[in-house]
């Protein structure tokens, strides 16, 4: 049987603010299988970003078990968690976080070079991904020379560049107008499906969530 790309068991996270403790995640269980696209819904402040940070191994402070590709993150030293993240996970945020001094192609090439891909292959892959997202004529544009929707599409290509088994997306179209958001999300889903990656996508948009394979809801620190 296939191994889950991520499995969470009893994941907890609390924050202390001004002497008050807030239990944001109170025992999250979730399994995502290879290629599965899951929508993460929940009201503002329910902990969607916190949950994605847990899975992305970007921060500590979480209780419970987080397994990425079968490996228990808590058993790993910091270098092991970084390696797990680099090897298996791609991120798309609400804001693109592209490097402003590099053009679209370079922004997608760079993470591949860091991962050890030869330049020619990295450029070929970046060109293909950006082409699939309709950006073939924008390769040499810097982020400031791109529209918001185009910037997010470059961020999508960058997230997929190293062929991650899992893409984590935190409101990836949250700062776009509705029509652009729909289009970008549709292209994002199509590309992720084509690549065979799994994805966990936090969104407020119930309608867009229905285009995904499964919907999970975060409420009062629990998933349903
Ligand atoms: N570093 C922190 N210190 C204290 N409290 C925090 C911290 N990070 C998050 N929180 C709190 O945890 C709760 C969940 O925040 P989170 O950003 O995960 O929610 P969200 O569901 O992603 O919200 P939104 O949909 O508005 O982006 C919020 O009440 C927030 O104030």
Automatic annotation (TrEMBL):
UniProt keyword terms in alphabetical order: ATP-binding, Cell inner membrane, Cell membrane, Membrane, Nucleotide-binding, Transport
Pfam families cross-referenced by the UniProt entry: ABC_tran
Signal peptide: none
Top-level lineage group: Bacteria
InterPro entries: AAA+_ATPase (IPR003593), ABC_transporter-like_ATP-bd (IPR003439), ABC_transporter-like_CS (IPR017871), ABC_transpr_LolD-like (IPR015854), MacB-like_ATP-bd (IPR017911), P-loop_NTPase (IPR027417)
Keyword Transport: yes
Domain ABC transporter: residue ranges: 6-224
GO molecular function: ATP binding; ATP hydrolysis activity; transmembrane transporter activity
Gene Ontology CC annotations of this record: membrane protein complex; plasma membrane
GO biological process, one term: lipoprotein localization to outer membrane
CDD domains per UniProt: ABC_MJ0796_LolCDE_FtsE (cd03255)
Similarity-based family: Belongs to the ABC transporter superfamily. Macrolide exporter (TC 3.A.1.122) family.
Name of the protein: ABC transporter ATP-binding protein
Organism: Novosphingobium flavum
